[in-house]
Structure formats: C-alpha cells, structure tokens
Amino acid sequence: MKNILIINGHPNKNSLNFALAAAYRNGAKESGANVSLIHIADLTFNPNLQFGYQQRMELEPDLLSSLAQIKAADHLVWVHPVWWGGMPAIMKGFIDRLFLPGIAFQYRENSIWWDKLLKGKTARIITTLDQPAWYYRLFFGRPSINQLKKSVLQFCGVDPVKVTYVGIVKKSTDLQRLKWVARVHQLGKKLA
Questions:
Q1: Percentage of the chain with pLDDT > 70?
Q2: Alpha carbon of 41 to those of 58, 79, 93: distances in Å?
Q3: What does the pLDDT look like over 131-147, one tens digit per residue?
C-alpha cells in the first residue's frame, strides 16, 4: 500500500488548489492508499531561513510533523499556483525550512557532490496557471517547475517527478473547473 503525501501551497482555502488537493486525496483513498494532506497555510512556522545554512534554526512542531510525513511518504504531490512565474512565498519558506542539509540532502566533505537523502520517492506537481501551459514553458521556461522539480525534488533524490498543468484558471467556467477536479481525482485513483 502506497503512502501518499499531498502538500498544498496555496494560502487561500477557497481556491481551486484546495479543491484539487482534496480531489487527489479522495481518488487515492478510494484506491486504498494511505493519504496525508498538508495545507502549508495552516502550519505555524517562521518561513524565513534567517541564517541560511550557517546556523540551524529549531524546527517548529508543525515542521517536525511535516518532516515526518515527508520521510514516511512514498509519493509526494505538490499542488500550487504559479504567481509571478514562481510558487507562493509560504510554500518557498516551507521548502527553505525543511529541505536542509542533513535532512533532504547532504554535501560531501571536500567535494562538489552531494548525497540525495530522499531517494526512493516519486512525485507529481499539480500547478494552476493563468496562461496556457505551452506558453509558460516556451516563453518563460517554466521557472516554478524547474525550481521545484529539478532544484528541490530531484536534487534531493525524488524521481521521477511528473507535472500536471491546470489552466487557464482566470477565464475558466464552473464546468471547466469541475472537469479539472475530476481529472485530478482520476490521477489520485490511478497512482494508488
């Protein structure tokens, strides 16, 4: 049985992202998977990595709980909107505070290489856009996906990482949103 962790990076509980996270959770549960869901906006923590890597900040209880869930998961599902080409600030702060040396990766002494401490996990990124996915890839180079997929997840050993684009959100109808929610529900059922 798979352990799936869904991490929702949208701060607004009335957003399409919350509906997508719930749809994936419900689909995965229907298939018998163990599913956990983190809404980053509900956590209490300082998103600012005040000292960089020079001094370790104590992890708040919500971050310790999130870390345990990440370590226990076989598959990570990240749900987030694209804002200014990137992810919401609270999601970036969550990553900055948790994906640390000794936790998600470890630099090797006297080497440019590192050990990937999250090997054996897979992931899916579900991201909402206010532009066509092809336009985001072609004209902007999909910066939020590159950052999360390559510079965070794959850097730490999570592989493969699949991507699902949802949009154009700002001009969508209720019917289109229901179709996107149903599609993500099916992704959850299929993986589990």
A1: 99
A2: 19, 12, 11
A3: 999 999 999 999 999 99
| CB-based contact 148:78 (threshold 8 Å) | yes
Count of Cβ atoms closer than 10 Å to residue 77 Cβ: 28
Q: pLDDT tens across 75-113, in order?
A: 999 999 999 999 999 999 999 999 999 999 999 999 999
**0.85 surpassed by pTM:** yes
Closest CA to 182 of 40, 4, 30: 30
- Enumerate domains of the chain plus CATH numbers: 3-191 (3.40.50.360)
The residues, ordered by sequence, that sit 6+ positions from 81 with a Cβ below 8 Å of its Cβ are: 9, 10, 15, 17, 87, 88, 127, 128, 129, 169
For the beta carbon of residue 174, count every other beta carbon within 10 angstroms.
Answer: 7
Provide the token pair at 172: 């969508």
Residue 186, token pair as written in the block: 């099916």
